[in-house]
Amino acid sequence: MQTAFDTLIDSYIDNKVGIAENFLNATLANQLREKLAALHSQGHFQSAGTGNEKIILHDKLYRSDMIYWLDRKHNDPVENEFFDLIDQFVLHLNSTCYTGITGYEFHYAMYPAGSFYKKHLDQFRNNPSRQYSMITYLNADWQEGNGGELRIHHADREQDISPVSGKSIFFKSSELEHEVLVTNTARLSITGWLKVG
């Protein structure tokens, strides 16, 4: 896994956006996708909002995805395998880049066909704990035309990233505005933040 970790970090250093095509192996990606689908079919997802626990707004004109928070307390073996991978990445990140990450939070995100998330920053104005945003995709057989690309707004250009299964994206939460373009088919991911404090 160190190769994928180094790829994510090196590409972040080069371009402010880290990309590792095979951060998840195919087996784990499939298991997480099946888990997401099962939780959604059982009605466990909720409409996503904007803001933190103090201020949460629900605006379908701004974002229209649905989420389910992951937690080790669920003691789900597949989700715990994902957390183990993140623990390894955080340890590698802290030891090589001295980032001081002390925690994280992640949720499943499901964008039904026709949904989107308009341009935004991930770090809250009233809480700077989110240091790095991290998105890992679970979309099997994604093809151009399915939509749902992640659009990163750099100072001098836009960068569109396809949400292909197993791929992970990594960037500073306070620096880059980004959006999810309109989906033409269901778009699945695990989205979260590496945190300090």
Name its key features.
globular; seven-stranded antiparallel sheet; alpha+beta; 3 helices; 197 residues
Structural class: alpha+beta
Strand content: 25-35%
Largest β sheet strand count, sense and barrel closure: 7 strands, antiparallel
What's the overall geometry?
A: globular
Low-pLDDT residue spans: 54-58
The ordered string of helix (H) and strand (E) elements is HEHEEHEEEEEEEE
Rg (C-alpha, Å): 16 Å
Order of strands in the sheet with most strands? 1-9-6-11-4-3-2
Count the E strands. Answer: 11
- Count the helices. How many? 3
Q: What distance lies between the first and last C-alpha atoms, to the nearest angstrom?
A: 27 Å
Average pLDDT: 91
Q: Work out the helicity level.
A: 25-40%
Describe the structure.
This protein has 197 residues and is α+β, with helices and mostly antiparallel strands. It has helices at 2-15, 26-41, 77-97, and strands at residues 18-20, 46-47, 66-69, 103-111, 117-120, 130-137, 150-153, 158-161, 168-172, 177-180, 187-195. A 7-stranded antiparallel beta sheet has the order 1-9-6-11-4-3-2. Strand 7 and strand 8 form a beta hairpin. The longest helix is centred in the middle third of the chain and has 21 residues, at 77-97. The chain is globular, with a radius of gyration of 16 Å. The protein starts with a helix and ends with a strand.
